[in-house]
Amino acid sequence: MVNPKHKHMNTLRNWLSVVVLLAVVAIGCQKELIENGTVSTPTIPITNPTTTTSINGRIIDEDNKPIAGATVMAGFTAAQTNINGEFVLNNVTVEAARAFVQVTKEGYFRTGRLFIAAENQRHFVEVQMLKRNALGTVSAANGGLLTHSSGASILLPQGGFVHATTGAAYSGQVTVDFAWINPVGADLHRQMPGDLRGVDSTGREVGLTTFGMIGVELTGSGGEKLQIAPGRTATLTFPIPSGIQSVAPNAIDLWSFGDSAIIWKKEGRANRVGNNYVAQVSHFSFWNCDAPFQQAILKAKFVNQNGTPLRHYGVKLTRNSMGGYAYGYTDTSGVVRGIIPVNEALTLQLFGTVYCSAQVLHTQNVNPSNGNIDLGTITVNTPSLSNYTVSGSVVNCSNNPVASGYVDIRYNNFQYVRAQVTNGAFTASFSTCSNTAAVNYYAVDGSNMQQSNVQTATLNAGATTLTSISACGVSVSQFINLTYTGASLGLSTPQDSIALYPLNAGQGASFMLQGTRIGQTPNSGTNFQLSFNATAIGAGTVLSSSLFSSQPPFQGNYTSQGTINITEFGTQPGSFIAGTFLVPLRDSSSNVTVAVNGTFRARRN
C-alpha cells in the first residue's frame, strides 16, 4: 500500500507490498517458548500450492512492549507468546504465496501478517497489536456519530444492528471499539493486518497504496458481537494526513479485511470530501482506502565477505517517484522477496540486523522493469555481531530471594529484553553490533509490588553477572483516579492497563498517559487519555485529554485546556511520573462541559 510522500527516515512508509522472507530472531529466554501447542482458534484456510516452513517472531503492543500469552497461528499450527512476546512455529504448512500468521488476544483487534514463504526456511515477523479501545456507545435504536481524536469518525444507522452469530435484530446499547491506522505513521507496517496486497473485483491480486485504515468492532451490552443489519450501512470518515493531501485522488477504492481474511478485498469506493475520505460500509472489520498498482516480484540474496548468508538483515526499498518506502528482513538463506510496482525506479538499501538497524551497509539503484527482477547474489562487508548473556540475583526488602518477578534490560536506547525471576535468579540474552553495550535495568518483586531504582551499566560482549539487585524502595503502584459530576473512577494495575510513553521519539518533554479497563462486558469499559508536557516536578502543560466510561457513564471529547502539576518525575524509562490534573471535558451526550479532577502514577516507557 503506497504511502505517497516521504519526509523523514523515522516515518515508515509502506508503499509497496515488500513481503519479505523474514529470518529467525532469538531474543531473551527461548526455553520459555511454547512451541506448536494446540489451542481453540479458527484454522486458516490453505490453498495450493503449499510449502513447509518455520516462523519466529515477536508480538508487541502500541507502547512497543512485548505481549505475553497472545495466540499465534499459521496453517494448522499454533503457539503462544512468552514473557518477551516471542513465539516459534516449526515446520508449518502454509500457502507459499500467501503465508499468513494470525495473532489474537483478548482485548485486542485480531491481526496478522501475510508474507511469501520459502520451503524449509525460517522467517521472522513482528506484529504490533492494537487495543480494542471503546470510542463510545450508542443506542441501537438511535445510532449516532462518534469521533476519534485523529479526526476519523463513524456514523451508525438508526435501528440497524443484528447479532453477528444469529442475524437476529438487536435493540440494546452498542459499544464501538475503534482504531485508526495512520498511513504515514512509523508503525504502519507493524500495525496493519495482512500486508500490502489485495484482491480486486476480478480476483486479480494487486499491490496497494494506502491513504488510511480504520478498524471497528461492535458489541452488545452482554458482550455479544454485533454487525450492521442487511441492507443498512454505516459511514466511515478517514482523515487524510497533511503530508499526502496533495497527491490524494478525488475518489479511491475501498478494501476490507474481515474476521477470516488473510488478504485485503476490494469492496466499493470512498469519495474525497475536503481533506477526508468518506465511505459507506455494510459490515465491520478493518477498512482501507487504497489505490491499486500492477505488481512484480523482486528477489535478492545477500552474503557477507566470507560468503555467509546475511540472516535477519533489514532491507529498505524506496519508491523514487513518490519517496515512500517499505522495510523487511532477509530469511535464513539471506534472501529477500517482495512485491514491487512495475515500471518504476527504486532504491534498495541493506541495513544491519534489528540489533544494528541504523547502519546502512549497502545501497544500489533498481532500474524500472515491466516484469520480475532478480538481483542475484550481492556481497556486502558486514560488522560482526556481538552476543550478550546477562544473569544475576534479585532479593526483596527482607533480603530474601524474590520468588516471582522480572528484570527489564534496555539496550540500544529503545530495545529491551525481559527476563523472568524464579527463586531469585534470572538470565537474559541479546545481541548488538558493538563489543560494548550501555544498558539500564530494573528488577520487580511481583509478590510485594516493589522494584529497584533504574540502574545503568556498560557491558562487554559475552557473559556478565550483575551484582545482586534489591527490588525494594520503589513502589510499582500505577493508578489513575478520576472524579467528575459527583462520581469517582479508579484504574490501577495489574487489573487495568496503564501506560505512559513519550509522544515524540527523542523528545522526553511530551507524554501520553493512557488508562484502559476492558471489564467483563463491553459496557464496563473505560478509556482515559491525557497528553502533557513536563520536564520536572512542578507545573506542566496539558495538551489534550479525553474520557470514555460506561460506569459511571461519561463520554468526553478532547480539549486543549486544563492544568497539571507533577509531584514525581522519574528521568529514565522504568522510573515513574506522578501528578494531579484538572481538565474540562465536554460530555458529547449532554453537550455540557464537566470538570474532571484526577491523580495518576505511571511507569515511563
Structure, explained:
The chain is 1% helix and 55% strand. With 605 residues, the chain is mainly beta. Among the domains are: 30-128, Immunoglobulins (Immunoglobulin-like), CATH 2.60.40.10; 386-474, Aromatic compound dioxygenase (Protocatechuate 3,4-Dioxygenase, subunit A), CATH 2.60.130.10; 479-603, no CATH class. The strands form 8 sheets. Strands 39, 40, 41, 42, 43, 44, 45, 46, 47 and 48 form a 10-stranded antiparallel sheet that branches. Strands 30, 31, 33, 34, 35 and 38 form a 6-stranded antiparallel sheet that branches. It has a 5-stranded antiparallel sheet with strand order 1-4-3-6-7, with no helix packed on it. The longest helix has 4 residues, at 188-191. The model is unreliable at 1-46 (pLDDT under 50).
Q: Would you spell out the secondary-structure blueprint of this structure?
A:
Layout: E1 34-37, E2 50-60, E3 71-74, E4 77-80, E5 86-95, E6 99-104, E7 111-115, E8 122-128, E9 134-139, E10 144-147, E11 153-156, E12 161-163, E13 173-181, H1 188-191, E14 197-199, E15 205-219, E16 225-228, E17 234-239, E18 251-257, E19 264-273, E20 276-281, E21 286-293, E22 295-303, E23 313-319, E24 325-329, E25 335-341, E26 346-353, E27 360-366, E28 373-379, E29 386-395, E30 404-411, E31 415-422, E32 425-432, E33 436-445, E34 450-451, E35 455-460, E36 462-465, E37 469-470, E38 474-475, E39 479-484, E40 487-492, E41 497-504, E42 507-517, E43 526-533, E44 538-550, E45 553-557, E46 563-569, E47 576-587, E48 592-603
